[in-house]
Input
Amino acid sequence: MSEFFLELFSEEIPARMQADAAAEVERFITETLKKNELAYTAVKSFVTPRRVGLVVDGLPASQADLTEERKGPSVSAPEQALNGFLKSTGLTKEQLTTRETPKGTFYFALLSHKGRPTTEVLQEAVTTMLASFPWQKSMRWNSHKEHWVRPLHSILCLFGGAVVPVEFAGVKSGNTTRGHRFLAPAEFAVKDFADYEKKIRDAFVIIDPAERRQIISEKAHALAKEAGYKLLEDNGLLNEVTGLAEYPVPLMGKIDDDFMTVPQEVLITSMRANQKYFCMTDENGKMAPRFIVVANMKTADNGAEIVAGNERVLRARLSDARFFWDEDRKTTLASKAEKLKERVFHAKLGSVADKVARMRALLPEILKYVPNADAADADRAALLCKADLSTGMVGEFPELQGIMGRYYARHDGENEAVAEAIAEHYSPLGPNDACPGAPVSIAVALADKIDTLVGFWLIDQKPTGSKDPFALRRAALGVIRLIVENNVRMPILQIFDAARAVYGESIQSAVQEAMTKSEKRESNGEPTVLVNWSVRQMNLLIAFIAERLKVAMKDKGVRHDYITAVYNLSRNNDLSGLDLVRMLARVKALRGLLSTDDGANLLTAFRRAANIVRIESAKDKSSYTETADKSLFVLPQEGALFDALGRIVVNSSNKIASDDFTGAMADLAALRQPVDAFFDKVQVNCDDVRLRANRLRLLSMIVGAMDGIADFSAIEG
Output
């Protein structure tokens, strides 16, 4: 058994591409080996800023010889058929065997295939992989037609210690590589991966990303602690910096005190985005005047010159940030809101100023359902929430939108609730982002997201497949979290209709265009009127919200079919009153019922009853939806079931009306005994036509009673 070792050495690979590159090398090589029936014992890939590769252990010298049996024509077939078979196998008639089969006697050929040398398979695999590697972005260099992420310098390709001959972009494979760009640039040869591991480490290259990551993390934390500070955790930055250094050396630098008056979010964003620096905080959580830079080498002066150079660069960067901070505060946030007329939200949905106006118009409807939200504060926050888009700071650092608005609002003396709502109205930005909890913030955040969702649905710009250019799935999840986590009892379709009304005729032409692009519905030979189109789109939006709710609740262990069962009931009865909080309370109660033996058995009975009624109704062309006739009851179990259904329908309806869903489910569970007794003692499809019809009506009553609680037909399993 032998080892295959591959290293592709190039100019710097962008950090964001490194992990995918290592995974792709491993995927391609291992899949090729499996396809060629070459077993191996272990595989390990690695990647650094300048190299990507893998090692595969336990490979055989060649493929196993293969014996193949191939069925030929019948012995009674024409001679031409036999000759064709002989030609395809390369055998003579004497080398064939005959065998009896259920379809007669046939010729069979036994073919032997010599296994290919593993070196040949690997040569083919590496050559193909290099030519078809799926880099996100690639380039050509010199006169080469081949593409790679950056100019390729060497291909180290060994099997059993011998070079596997490969050529790509003018580079021929060999047994040599190079170490660190500055600390060990000389070329050196290796015998195998073990030899490579030792020599490459001696050449100041750490090939394992996990090890480099650990070195950076541990040293950065130690430097911060030594200075009396705490490192600000940033896993995204840590992963990125890991991909920037083959020999990472964390160093600490100083931030000039003059810059510490600038908001810390600005400092952090500037240092993170532009310089890839780690930040620190003091014991009070205030940003410390220090930063950590990760150098890619060790120096005789312990990094003093590197730190000094980075401090100079940082000084220039933060001077720009301070300039924006000072300039933006010379005029009020309110004055900047006027400039939003010049900023396009969407070509078909108007300017950002138009969006703000719609939010303000929608807020009174939302505020009906958000307790303790001051209407004046909410309106003021909505007016100012997008104003920081016109500032120099947000123009430079778009990720600070909302955050800078809060700072500028406070500087202008705005109410604190207004300032917080400005900062929080974009939230939550994802499943792990904090959800606003202050009443004004909730109201403004809902107005922002609902306006966005309704607008894009009206112009038929919904997400498709994996494409969601306007982040509408995130907006929908934000609406759900704002409502559910803050217990906002809101009739959501009613709010969507209010948002639709706010748009009015402003996007009439865009809606008409959307209608012609999607299915054109017709009424009396004319396209459906705009209002009908809009209503239909709002119903589709509600369905979209329901689907996102399933996704959101999945992580909490709530089955999607339970949500469907409750949603279907709401949709069929009164969608305008759809209340997500109420809906989830019903889902919780349903979940509790079906987790019991009574609930599980009742579900089985429901399915049995529904199936019988469906089959017999189709056969008889009758619905059997009438109330059963008590005078036709023959057995006591019929009357007992009828009486139980009457009580439960009344009791559960009253409890549902008062949001006592758990009590309603408990009442429903009491049906189990009379239902079980009915199915045990009563023959539904009896010979007496009148009795049979009446018993089918009883079964329909079971289905109806349970359907009043939830759509049990949607429950899976």
About this structure: The first helix runs from residue 15 to 35. Confidence is low (pLDDT under 50) at residues 522-527. Residues 348-557 form one domain.
